Structure formats: structure tokens, C-alpha cells
Amino acid sequence: MEQELVVMEIICNAGEARSLCFEALRQSREQNFSVAEEKLQQAKECLNKAHLVQTQLIEEDQGEGKVPMTLVMVHAQDHLMTTILAQELASEMVALHKQLAG
């Protein structure tokens, strides 16, 4: 797969996951917990797709610099890492909202 397509796949899946995480937070503030949990699950699926692409790149590179590192590749990796963090925090915050509404 061309590197540009790979990078865009990471960015698009991570971006979709991030949007879903923030939608889950909005839903949990409104005490729509089943919708919030569904959004978090969808975010997890998007992140899994992005992570799979990242893993394929790592396997292709084999630690030997076979995959050229470009600024857009760094951007994609950065986008993925921050979205993973957003997903973890959103999950905790939804659980907290749920507990407080209890």
C-alpha cells in the first residue's frame, strides 16, 4: 500500500475515534450512558483499525528504516497517540459520570 494511503488511513481512523470519544462525553453529561458506551465501543473499533495499520508499518520496517519517515507520517503517529489517550480518558470520565448519576 502506498505510504500516503497508509498515513491517511491512520489519520482518518484516529480522527473518527477522537470525534466518537467526545460524543461519548457529551452523551454521558446528558446521562445517555448506553449511547455513550456505544460511542466508546465504536471509537475502540476505529482505534483498532488505525493500530493495525501502524503495526503493519512497523512489521514492514523491521527496525531497519525501510519505511521512509515523513512529516505527515509523524503527524499520523502523533494523531494516533493523542487519540488513544483521549479514548482512555473519555472511558474514565464516562464511568465517573455514570457513578455520580448513580
Overall description:
- This protein has 102 residues and is mainly α.
- Helices cover 85% and strands 0% of the residues.
- The mean pLDDT is 94.
- It starts with a helix and ends with a helix.
- Helix 1 packs antiparallel against helix 2 (33-61) and helix 2 (33-61) runs antiparallel to helix 3 (71-101).
- The chain is elongated and about 50 Å long.
- It has helices at 3-29, 33-61, 71-101.
- It has three helices and no strands.
List its salient traits:
single chain, 102 residues, mainly alpha
Oligomer: single chain
Q: Span from first to last CA?
A: 48 Å
User: pLDDT under 50 segments (min length 5)?
Assistant: none
Strand content: under 5%
> What composes the largest sheet?
none
Helical element count?
A: 3
Q: How many whole angstroms does the radius of gyration measure?
A: 16 Å
Give the helices and strands as they follow along the chain. Answer: HHH
Overall pLDDT score: 94
Percent helix, as a range, is over 70%
